[in-house]
Design a protein that fits this description.
Blueprint lengths: L5 E4 L13 H14 L3 E4 L11 H15 L5 E4 L5 H14 L3 E5 L8 H15 L3 E4 L2 H4 L5 H8 L4 E7 L3 H14 L5 E5 L1 H10 L3 E4 L6 H12 L3 H9 L2 H10 L1 H11 L16 H13 L7
Parallel strand pairs: 1-2, 1-8, 2-3, 3-4, 4-5, 5-6, 6-7, 7-8
Helix pairs in contact: 1-2, 2-3, 3-4, 6-7, 7-8, 8-10, 9-10, 11-12, 11-13, 12-13
């Protein structure tokens, strides 16, 4: 079973306005991440627009990414759905294609209870056989995984990790300590929210689930390696170089900024899935100014 640690880089999923995935371009994105030495690839995450793609297109994306990695880099696939049976099917698709794990959020329209979320995760784990990462994304799902629920789920066979939202350094350190105290040995504790994730890694988190890592993998790998060897000063120095990007994320959202950056850097011209609109000209000018002042080599 895969052990998740280090940098998990999340690329966008290039698709046309009809939701047809550009598998050729996706393979190029994935190849960049493999070459950069990321520890895993988070395919079809929130930035990867998994909820905007149908089953067939998700599967095409998974197959293209896994063909490109050729087993060199583990791939964690977003499998969230409103219905439990559909989430089972997405997990089965990912497992059959060769994914290392599935990233499962408590997606809902009607607010879910703790027992409903527990049964949802247990069912997907049992019926798919795909190792699962709990995706605690309360700003989107409006459901927060308590330490008690995480402790219950962490003891379910096949549930191997959690991706939480990193807050302030003190909040994240306390959350990490409490979760580690209640989870079994070997259960991987990871964080997203890029601006705060360097401090999470310094505090002892296992994994950084990174949006910017999907576009700027090199510097993110360096940050993680510095944190892993206990060089907090170097990790913070490198992270500070990305502070202007974190400001953009706070103002416009990471997903919108990543789409704009991909275009501004000349990597690819891709628009986000509707109803999300591309950023306007003023926002793009600001992003371009930030890019122009980033240290040389970061945007590679």
């Amino acid at each position: 079973m895969v052990v998740l640690a280090g940098l998990s880089a999340f690329p966008i999923t290039p698709a046309d306005t009809a939701g047809r995935v550009d598998t050729h371009l996706l393979r190029k994105f994935v190849a960049r991440l493999v070459e950069a030495g990321v520890d895993s690839i988070g395919l079809l995450g929130s930035t990867g627009a998994y909820m905007y793609l149908d089953r067939a297109e998700r599967l095409r994306a998974i197959e293209a990414a896994l063909e490109e990695t050729s087993g060199r880099t583990p791939v964690v696939v977003g499998i969230g759905e409103l219905r439990t049976d559909n989430a089972v099917h997405r997990a089965q698709d990912a497992k059959a294609a060769g994914a290392s794990a599935g990233l499962l959020a408590a997606v809902s329209y009607t607010p879910l209870t703790v027992d409903e979320v527990y049964e949802h995760f247990v069912t997907v784990a049992r019926e798919s056989g795909l190792p699962l990462v709990i995706y605690d994304n309360p700003f989107t799902t409006h459901f927060r995984f308590t330490p008690e629920l995480v402790a219950r789920l962490a003891r379910v066979p096949g549930i191997i990790a959690i991706k939480s939202i990193a807050g302030s350094p003190d909040e994240t350190s306390a959350h990490l300590h409490l979760t580690r105290e209640n989870a079994p040995e070997g259960f991987s504790l990871g964080y997203s929210a890029d601006a705060n994730s360097t401090e999470a890694m310094i505090a002892g988190a296992d994994t950084w689930y990174s949006v910017i890592g999907g576009l700027f993998p090199g510097i993110c790998v360096e940050i993680v390696r510095a944190a892993q060897r206990g060089d907090a000063a170097e990790a913070r120095r490198l992270n500070a170089q990305l502070d202007p990007v974190w400001d953009l994320f706070r103002q416009f959202s990471s997903m919108r900024v990543i789409y704009a950056l991909t275009d501004i850097l000349g990597i690819a011209h891709i628009v986000p899935p509707r109803p999300i609109l591309p950023l306007d000209a003023d926002a793009r000018r600001r992003i371009a100014e930030v890019v122009a002042h980033l240290p040389a080599g970061i945007a590679k």
